[in-house]
Sequence to fold (353 residues):
Amino acid sequence: MVWLGEDRFDAHRVDLPELRPGEVLVRVLVAGICGSDRHTVLGHRDAPCPSVLGHESVGEVVAVGPCAPDAPVPTDVCGGGLQIGDRVVWSVTVACGHCDRCRAGITAKCRHLRKVGHERVDSGWPLSGGYASHMLLPVGTAITRVPDGLGNRAASLASCAGGTAVAAIEAATRMLGRADLSGLDVLVVGAGGLGTIATAAAVAIGGAVAVSDLSAERLGTACRFGARVHDSESDADERFDVALEFSGTPSGVRSALAGLRLGGVMVLVGAVSPIGEVAFNPEHVVRDHLTITGVHNYEPRHLVRAVELLARDPLWEELVETPLPLTQLHDALLEPAADPRVLRRTVAADAQS
Fold:
C-alpha cells in the first residue's frame, strides 16, 4: 500500500526484485501500526512521499541474494546464516557500516542512513516498508531470528517499540554506571507500546517501577508486568532515580523531570514529532546533579534483547490485535482498537476480514 500523502493510500502491484548479493527478501507475516506512522499520516511530522510506510514487522525469509566475493553473506545479528523459511524481525535503520558514526558504534545515526518505512518508492528501494506483502532487506539491515515460542503478533513489537525501549533502559544504566536497576526507583511516563515494554524490561533487571498514564486500561496492563501506578498529582512528592519519558508531551516531560531525586537520570524517548519548547530551571539540574539524555532508534544488540524479552511472556501476544487485511490499512491507522488494552493494531496481506 503506497502512502500518497495525508490519509490517502493506493494499492500498487510491483514485480519481486532480482536480489543482489547480501540482500534478503521476506514475506511480511504481520505489520504493526506504530504511533509514529499515525503521526505521519495525520501531518504531525514530515516524511518522504509517496512511500510504503510500516517499520514494525515480522516476516519469513523467502529468498537470499547470491554469493559474491565482495559482498557479505546474509546473516543474523549473531552471525548465523539465514535460511529460507526462517522467521525474522529486522531493524528500522539500514546503516553503511563504514562512516565515522558506524565505526563508533552509533549505527542508528549513520551518515548514509536509510530507514525501513521511510523511503520514497522511486528511491531505488520500493519494497522498503512493512505495509506490503513483501519487503527487501538491503545490506546493512540488522536481522534477528524469532524463536519458535514467540508468536508473530508479539514478535512484530520488537522492530521499533521493543528495540527502542531496550535502548532507553541501557541509556539509563549507562548514565548511572550500573549493569542493572536493582534497588532503584524507576518512573515510566506513558504506557503505550514503548512504555509497557520498557516497564517489563526495567522490572526484569531489578527496577521498582511506577507508571503514569491517562488510561486506566494501559495502567492495568503495565501492572501485569510488575509495575505500580503513579498518580502525578496525589504522588507528586515521590522521587525516582530514573525517569523514562514516552508520552512525547510537554506535561510528560515536565512530570518526568520533576520526579527525579538527587543524581537522577531522565531519558527522553517519546518526542519523535514536534511538541514545542519545554521550559526548565537549569539551577535545578545543576544543584541536583541531574542527567538528561535522549534515545532515538537503537543498535542491533537492542533488537536481539527485545526479542528475548518478548519471548519470556506469552502476554505480549494477547496485547497485539489480530491483523486486519492490508486493504483496511486506512482504518487500522486512524481508528482505535475496540479493546483499549491493545498496544498495537496490525495488518497483514493474507489476513481475512
Remarks:
- The chain is about 25% helix and 20% strand.
- The two ends are 17 Å apart (CA to CA).
- The chain has a mean pLDDT of 96.
